[in-house]
Amino acid sequence: MDPVHARTDCWKVLVSHFDHRAGRIVHRSVNACIAPLCSVADKAITTIEGISSAGKLHPIQERLVESNGSQCGFCTPGIVMSVYSLLQSEENPTLEQLESSLDGNLCRCTGYRPIVDALSALCRTSCGNANGDIEDIGKTKAPLQQTISDPDLAVANDPNTVAGTSKAPASLNFPKDLIYKVPTRLVLGQEEDSTMWFRPITMKELLYLKDLHRSNARIAVGFTELGIEKHFKRSRFPSCISPVSVPEMTAIRISDVGLELGAAVTISDLDAALAHAIDTMDPLKTIFFKEFRQQIRRFAGHSVRNVGSIGGNLITASPISDLNPLHSACSSILTFESMSRGARTTTADKLFITYRVVDCRDDEVLVKVTIPFSPPPETHFRAFKVSRRRDDDIAIVCAGMFMRLHPVNRSILQCSLAFGGMAPVTLQAKETSRYCIGKTFSSSLFKDIIPILQRDLPLPDNAPGGMAHYRRTLALSLVLKFFLAVSGNDSRDSAATSAFTRPPCKGLQYFNVSPPLPSECIGKGIAHKAGKLHVTGTATYSDDTAVRPRALYAALVTSTKPHALLRAVRWEKALAAPGVHSYLDHESVPGSNAMGPVVLDEELFASKEVHCVGAVIGAVLADTDEHAQDAARLVEIDYEPLPFVLTIQEAIAAGSFFEPLHPLSIETGNLDAALQRSEVIVEGAVNVGAQEHFYMEPQTCIATPGEDNEIEVVTSTQNPTKAQTYAAKALGIERNRVVVRVKRLGGGFGGKETRSVFVSSIAAVGAAASRRQVRCVLPRDVDMCITGTRHAFYATYRIGSTRDGYLQAADIQLYSNGGCSQDLSVPVMERAIFHAENAYLVPALRCVGKVCRTNTPSNTAFRGFGGPQSMFIAETWMEHLARTLSIDRHDLIRRNLLRAVPDSMTYFGQAIPDCPLTQMWSDLMRVADVENRRAEAQRFNSESKYVKKGIACVPTKFGMSFTLKFMNQASALVHVYTDGTVLVSHGGTEMGQGLHTKMCAVAAHELGIGFDQVHISETATDKVANTQPTAASVSADLNGAAIQDACRQINERLAPFRAQLPPEATFAEVVTLANFNRACLSAYGFYRTPDLDFSWESGKGRPFHYFSYGVACAEVQLDCLTGDILVQRVDIIHDVGDSLNPTIDIGQIEGGFVQGYGLFCLEELVTTPQGALFTRGPSTYKIPSCTDIPVDFRVTLHQDESRATTSKLTTIYSSKGVGEPPLFLGSSVFFAAKEAVYAYRDDPSYFQLDSPATCERLRLACSAAIGRNLYSDSC
Fold it and tell me: Ligase: present as a keyword of the record (predicted)?
């Protein structure tokens, strides 16, 4: 089991076996990280390395490469294998099947759109509009290119080719001997160690084994639950019995009662069996089946459904199981058998006793589940599930509801309402059901049952899982939905009662295909340099570094208290554990234990006091990662608790702030006078939540000792020089003895700028102490608990304007949660202050920032670096003002946008005379057809009672430079070889943003050679020294200019030799001649950003080289009864100057937008009252998935028609950075959702809605209005 992949669902394989009963080969994708090897005996395993043939990429791989469907590449193998599995089972899949196959795959980089677009060409239907017109932006004359997932991409008249690649999937060469191999009994393991795996082949053997081992044996089918318990909860199972080869356990048949299923039938096979029954039987008998299928579509991910079983899901007895409420509501029949007592039956509504305890005796096996036919005459049955994320997410509340009515008088003959998420077990609302039976059904009956339902579902405020009030309101809302569906009288209810359907997504991208710079590679959509490596699984990451003999693995020992003195740390038990080599703590550090990227206010190992849960106290070194992790849990720590502060509000009350070296404030104009002149003043406050980086590759480091105090560090960091500096500092050696190497990162987003150096320093200390290679890969939960997040913000504001909506004054106070140390919190607050105005002209503005010191892990850099939080606050007060003035929000934005006039400048005095925002805003209104779509949304809202639409647009202006002047520099080393190839080294790291691809293009263009002749191997401190972090979205600006400088030096040296050769001489011939004449073919380039200067004392200056601009429009549909949103369409126009690579830039825009959407609408970090992180993995922390992205996703690269502005840029080829600026545009979804809430509330008055706008917050924002509609304010 690979601890890196196991926590991200990235590592999937294809498992194939011959089904002797069906006479066919079955192909299923499986999460290899939790599947035990024993479970795939007698089956064929295909990994990503095995799907190409003779060096030729599979069509899936080709499409992803050509469409830039990978960025960091860490998740790509899982995506490839999921779709490969689909193509082995479906020769011509639909787009719906494609998206279904992708659920369970998470990608933090791409925003999913290029993945879906790339692979949709392999489907039999297309989601694009083949005849869509390409609209000109403004009066732009330059040609645009439209990229669209439609049949136009296919080679004409050839259905088996797509964009020059084979569409027909290569068939899998299934081993013939497995076709004829009959399943045999299997016994694996060592009985003396009590770790056994049994695979019986008859029911008698199965019952015998269960009787023999009883509670010491677990029935294991898919290992989806047991795998989590084993690997993440460290549970131990003496024996496992796999029943998959017992024919009765996988049998499926239609009986007189219903659909009979062996308990080991997988959820995928259950779905197929239900579909077959629905297609072939009387629809009146399959009403239950249809709702089971609806629920299965949202059951975990595809690879989990492929192996998880119907019986396992029941016996696991999760209180938030998706299917158990349905079983309970329709009274599925369960058959148990034991060796001594034979068979017995019960129904699912009687199965659940208490939390995770069911009515199954220790010698019994659940052998059969029967889902009954729906009874006549008038049966109503509905399945419901509400979760943070639509797919591949655990339920907040789920339900199965059944009601049978008399066909004439509509009296209720049967009623069963079952809920998950409302108690420690799947719970029946029995009193409510009894009350309903015999009553005549009417929609008004709902009013009568509300108090009864509340008694049936008495969820306490302190219920595990939190959100108690929301869950109580959801239960009422879901019952209302059911009653409305049964009633079916009001067409305005149909949107709320109909089954959810989401069409496949589609994308449109517009960019210039004739860039102004004549070049073969600059301005062209060249595929990602490592794309082929990503899709074939051959791209190497830090943890792929070869394991040296006698290598050791490090596991961290961390604090469980938010603030305490360390009274005793006892590690003797850990040292005595199997495989343990040694224990490290502060006394093991030969150099300095003091750490901190800016201020040395942290310790590598806590020595006397811990300041947060997750503070590192020590590390165990052992011969395997599992031994190290197990031993780390044996370390005993005695604490003396101290008072602690966790939140911004608590810090404000306690006066707990960091003291920066300069005042964190900027003021322009006479604020007091401007406020006095203002005709309207609004005051308010808003919170912006934190965000977990959730890079796919966890923090990873491999440190290897060398001779004479040398240490080589291979690590996943955005900051090699910082890793080098602090490893040397901790070891007490010179920096020239430490070499840090970075091949690539599996995502970073700022989370590996500073926090990674703690991991690399610990590994280096361990390597130096043991004289062995030390590997430290943080488990996902540990990574999330200790490495910090995006800063949460709280702001108060006082805004003044004229009555016609022109801004006059803004007084803004920002607070951020810095955590227990400064890290980069002060620079983050500085950037937040710089962006306090967002994109607006405010004559008098004061912004003051304070960084709160709390007892939480130190928060750190994250894409946008404080800018998105500050701009969100600005949009909040703009919305507040618009509502107060009764002015359309979009009109208010238009009136106050910074303009392209000679005296235009930011509130801190930086001139921006060429600001294109007004033109971009006008373009957005037109190309997105905003006004017509708003009118259509209003019409929809007038006809729909509980589902509303909202549309909102936002602008952004993002400053491009490090705000600390000295950091705006870069170096590069360029080697030219006599075969005409070039090796480039620069200070930037590749983490998916395509930096190396762009840098190769710069070198190729400057030297006049082909793109493929340039290579970048790695980023290393022995090649380029004193580098700056890959951050601030300026790495292409800085490193590109340094590479350009180096290449021009080489060109100058080559010029005399070019003159001696004919014009048609190759580059190799030129450099060979130069080499014979002893000319240097290597050069070291350097660049520093010009004209940067800012004074915090005066609050004036030019902190940024330039600004990047963008605008976005989002349309959402909100289910006001649940808070669930569907993003129907997004239009983005973004300014990237003259793009170095438009397809890579568009990928960054889409990925940044989706990450911003997650920040403002989906991702929520939850901390316990004692400071421990609750959302510490993908099961509880939800980033956007494939089905969360906009259904219609359109991106346009803004064009400066006259190039009057772009030509003035002093960046590399007049390009602009693109990584961070688009992220804020994701807030358009937040404000669109809020518009939908306004439509439901039917009250234009402003209300505060904090970020993220989760389903809980959105539903509760509708509560008062819903309460009126539900006849009870309690809703």
Answer: no
